[in-house]
Amino acid sequence: MIVKEWCMYCGECAGVCPRGLIEAREINLVFDEENCKDCQICINCCPVRALEKEE
Amino acid sequence: MIETDVLVIGAGPAGSSAAKHAALNGAKVLMIEKKSEIGAPKRCAEGVSKDGLIQLGVEPSSRWITSEIDGVRLVSPGGTDVWLTRDTVKLPEMGYVVERKVFDKFMAMDAARAGADIMVKTLARGLERKGGHIIVKAECMGEEFEIKAKVIIGADGPESRVGRWGGLKTTVKPKDMESGAQFEMVGVEMENPNALEFYFGSVAPGGYAWVFPKGKDIANVGLAVISTLTEKSAYEHLVEFAKNCPTTKNATAVELNIGGDPVGGILKKISTDNLLVVGDAAGMVNPLTGGGIISGMQGGVIAGEIAAAAIKEGDVSEERFAEYDERCQKELGSSFNKYMKARNYLESLSDDELDSIAKTFNESEFERISTTELLKVLVNVSPKALLKLGKLF
Q1: Does some domain include residue B64?
Q2: ipTM tops the 0.85 cut
Q3: pLDDT band at residue B393, thresholds of 50, 70 and 90?
């Protein structure tokens, strides 16, 4: 997952991740990419569109 | 290893309230907060009701009150105003717009004065159950360590991981997560700087936009949307709203806040062995307004009292904590169910229907307004809207 520079680490993505794979730290997001099923819910809910799937 | 009776994870108002009441009831309490500053950055419009504060025994303080509210302005998509002020109707005691970075610290200090210890910039990384206790792996300024507690209270917000670690289903469905964006602005041209302004319709699909005054020309200008109902981000909707709204078009932003608000109601299960969740982590948010400060603090009081009592009794089992679920559902959940229906109803209305309701509303006469009476008037003024409401109940 690419986290854009303007991410504000609000954690909304972590709240909606159905598998609980995102850890929202104060100024960092940690993704468990290995277990991600690519549902893209986190990407679509971000209030500032700061997440992008890595191709 | 640090040992404590109660470990509260998250120092928002719900966490501080839980920590305070667990400590007041005799428990040894530690509260940890992942951020370096409690209360900042805010993810909130900062409105609280006077009644709520009174019920919680919180004395209003000029240190965290930025403005006193005594009216409401509702604006339909076509621009029809509905004013609910003391001049037009008998209003219940309204509320305040607070400064969260001061308010939250004030509540945390209250918890500390009641006997709770606090550690900031301390992140919980995981937990395991061992011999009737919970061991939490934590990290502070690069140092990893463990905290052994009899009871964990997860107050870690809508992104809660604590509940999941304990086996609770705290994931929020996208349709129940309001995605919010807000500017704090100066140069806001409010007709009444003591009234909250709400804007409905396609300006904020699934939610609404707001202007909450924090001074003569200062306000929180924000909105919340349901991401599944719009192609645009909350931020894009906000920029458009701030540019086009007559109240804010000449204003300048001095702060940007974003965040999710879980509006699906209280989770079905909010406790398990050794563990309770509270506040946004438990869905203690009014589904209609998105407000969660007071309800989260009310949940915190219940969590703190029950955790301390359970520790005294030597029973921190899931069965013992069933009282927590029951009290929260009874004291908070029942009203949330009503507000959820109202939210579904509002969501179902088109911009034209909202305009029609606003116009008819202005022609109606009523002496006293409450949420229930507001809904009754809404039902009475539009037959089409009434039909939709009927389908929801």
Answers
A1: no
A2: yes
A3: very low
